[in-house]
């Protein structure tokens, strides 16, 4: 029998979608963590991060020192926020209260985690309003180093973002869109920083380059966060009375006195039915109707019920 899935199957479908989303989030986290570790090793080789072993009370302790921080804060911050978002998603997806709320619970979780995107947008707005120092003027070696780091992050992070975007398109799961833009900004923003350093190296005033970069970041990430928030609020909007959330739209009632399409002139089958009329497969499961002339009714059709939103 075909038709809409039964009510008990819907929680199972939502559970499967949540489990699939968590698997994607966990896989992305391990890939991002491997990227961060690889970058820290490269920074150690370049001399920006210095690792030493110190003995305290007979126990050797690994000590990290960053005498001239350039990329280490970026890498460590990126790894920290990957961990925070993955942990928050794990807590939310395993919450019984959110799980029992169905799509509303998942939309609420996505809306809450999208605040991490708004945090970045707010920071860029503050920097734009206060003219906070940012880029600075670097040498050609600094510009090249920024491009190398930005492209290394992009090689890993953009495929992760595209995977989340494709899964969101398939499952309609706003939480995946949050993670898509979280990982995308991790390479877009360093790339914009490399562009800004290139522009200042070519003679553009640092303040102008910084303002252009902040406006670009606000436009890209702010637009994405706004779209995600609108999707979540649409799900969280009150459901019309009489419609159960997540249930199929009730079929419109049929007026038995309303004329059918088969009763109209020029339609098929004709007004006269024959005893030999059968199903398309050539076999009829019900006895053939007796020959009769379909009667026409003059009762006006009833008003169609409003469509479910």
Distance between the termini: 26 Å
Quickly name the level 1 CATH class of the domain at 32-236: Mainly Alpha
Main pleated-sheet profile: 2 strands, antiparallel
Q: What is the correct CATH architecture of the domain at 32-236?
A: Up-down Bundle
Poorly predicted ranges: 1-8, 246-254, 258-298
Kindly summarize this structure in a few lines.
The protein is mainly alpha-helical and 309 residues long.
Structure, described:
The protein has a two-stranded antiparallel ribbon with strand order 1-2. The radius of gyration is 30 Å and the shape is globular. The protein has a domain at 32-236: Alpha-lytic protease prodomain-like, CATH 1.20.1510. Residues 1-8, 246-254 and 258-298 have low confidence and may be disordered. With 309 residues, the protein is mainly alpha-helical. Helices cover 59% and strands 5% of the residues.
Keywords, separated by commas or semicolons:
mainly alpha; Alpha-lytic protease prodomain-like; 8 helices; single chain; disordered N terminus; 309 residues
Helices and strands in order, then pairings?
Elements: H1 9-46, E1 50-56, E2 59-65, H2 72-93, H3 96-100, H4 103-113, H5 115-130, H6 140-171, H7 174-201, H8 206-236
Antiparallel strand pairs: 1-2
Helix pairs in contact: 1-2, 1-6, 2-7, 4-7, 4-8, 5-8, 6-7, 7-8
């Amino acid at each position: 029998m075909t038709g809409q899935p039964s009510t008990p199957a819907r929680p199972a479908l939502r559970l499967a979608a949540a489990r699939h989303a968590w698997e994607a989030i966990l896989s992305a986290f391990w890939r991002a963590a491997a990227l961060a570790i690889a970058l820290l090793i490269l920074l150690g080789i370049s001399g920006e991060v210095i690792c030493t072993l110190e003995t305290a009370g007979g126990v050797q302790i690994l000590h990290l020192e960053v005498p001239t921080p350039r990329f280490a804060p970026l890498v460590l911050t990126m790894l920290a926020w990957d961990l925070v978002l993955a942990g928050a998603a794990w807590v939310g997806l395993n919450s019984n209260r959110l799980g029992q709320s169905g799509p509303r619970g998942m939309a609420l979780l996505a809306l809450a985690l999208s605040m991490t995107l708004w945090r970045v947008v707010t920071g860029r707005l503050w920097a734009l309003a206060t003219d906070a120092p940012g880029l600075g003027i670097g040498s050609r070696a600094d510009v090249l180093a920024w491009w190398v780091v930005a492209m290394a992050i992009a090689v890993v992070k953009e495929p992760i973002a595209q995977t989340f975007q494709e899964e969101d398109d398939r499952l309609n799961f706003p939480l995946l869109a949050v993670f898509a833009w979280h990982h995308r900004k991790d390479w877009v923003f360093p790339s914009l920083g490399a562009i800004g350093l290139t522009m200042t190296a070519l003679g553009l005033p640092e303040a102008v380059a910084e303002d252009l970069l902040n406006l670009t970041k606000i436009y890209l990430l702010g637009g994405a966060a706004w779209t995600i928030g609108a999707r979540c609020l649409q799900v969280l909007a009150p459901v019309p009375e009489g419609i159960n959330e997540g249930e199929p739209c009730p079929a419109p009632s049929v007026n038995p006195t309303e004329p059918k399409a088969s009763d109209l002139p020029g339609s098929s089958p004709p007004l006269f039915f024959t005893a030999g009329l059968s199903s398309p497969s050539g076999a009829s499961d019900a006895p053939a109707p007796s020959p009769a002339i379909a009667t026409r009714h003059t009762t006006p059709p009833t008003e169609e019920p409003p469509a479910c939103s």
